[in-house]
């Protein structure tokens, strides 16, 4: 949805972060894989192969990115974490730490995550109406 704000290097690093996010709670669910693949298609890099970069390296790589890009990344990562309609405590801690590392306040991170969850709920409701 907001991935068009990222340059090519940021897009690839975002996918690396998304791959890490999917594994935070120990299992990668089909719904998370589906969101991940949608992101690859949205950015036009569906052939990208994850390089398994370290989280610390990725956090540092995005330090030079502007706040708008970092906000977009947190919102999109929340979409991966919420793909199974639940963000568990490990996932919440992970995204909170990431946001803090980038200089965001806890309240701002929670607001972005909550917005993503609300958006996903509205989207699901729209599909329910359409598919009646």
Largest sheet: none
- Gap from first CA to last CA: 26 Å
SS element count, helices: 6
> Any idea what the CATH superfamily is called?
TerB-like
> Which class best fits the helix and strand makeup?
mainly alpha
Strand/helix succession: HHHHHH
SS strand fraction = under 5%
> Portion of residues in helices?
55-70%
The total of beta strands comes to 0
Q: Tell me the CATH architecture.
A: Orthogonal Bundle
Basic shape: globular
Calculate the mean pLDDT score and round it.
94
Which topology does CATH recognise? TerB-like
Q: How many domain modules?
A: 1
CATH class descriptor name? Mainly Alpha
Summarize the structure in words:
It is a single chain. The protein is mainly α and 132 residues long. It has one domain (7-130): TerB-like, CATH 1.10.3680.10. It is 67% helix and 0% strand. The protein has six helices and no strands. The chain has helices at 8-22, 30-42, 55-61, 67-81, 89-101, 106-130. Helix 4 packs antiparallel against helix 5 (89-101). The relative contact order is 0.15.
Describe the secondary structure blueprint for this structure.
Layout: H1 8-22, H2 30-42, H3 55-61, H4 67-81, H5 89-101, H6 106-130
Helix pairs in contact: 1-2, 1-4, 4-5, 4-6
Main features:
132 residues; mainly alpha; TerB-like; 0% strand; globular
Briefly summarize what is shown.
This protein has helices at 8-22, 30-42, 55-61, 67-81, 89-101, 106-130.
């Amino acid at each position: 949805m907001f991935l068009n704000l990222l340059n090519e290097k940021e897009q690839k690093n975002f996918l690396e972060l998304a791959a890490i996010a999917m594994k935070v709670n120990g299992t990668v669910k089909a719904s998370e894989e589906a969101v991940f693949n949608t992101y690859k298609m949205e950015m036009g890099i569906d052939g990208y192969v994850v390089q398994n970069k370290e989280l610390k390296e990725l956090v540092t790589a995005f330090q030079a990115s502007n706040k708008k890009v970092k906000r977009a990344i947190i919102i999109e990562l929340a979409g991966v974490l919420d793909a199974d309609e639940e963000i568990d405590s490990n996932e919440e801690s992970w995204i909170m730490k990431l946001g803090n590392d980038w200089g965001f306040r806890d309240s701002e991170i929670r607001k972005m995550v909550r917005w993503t969850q609300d958006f996903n709920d509205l989207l699901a409701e729209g599909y329910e109406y359409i598919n009646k």
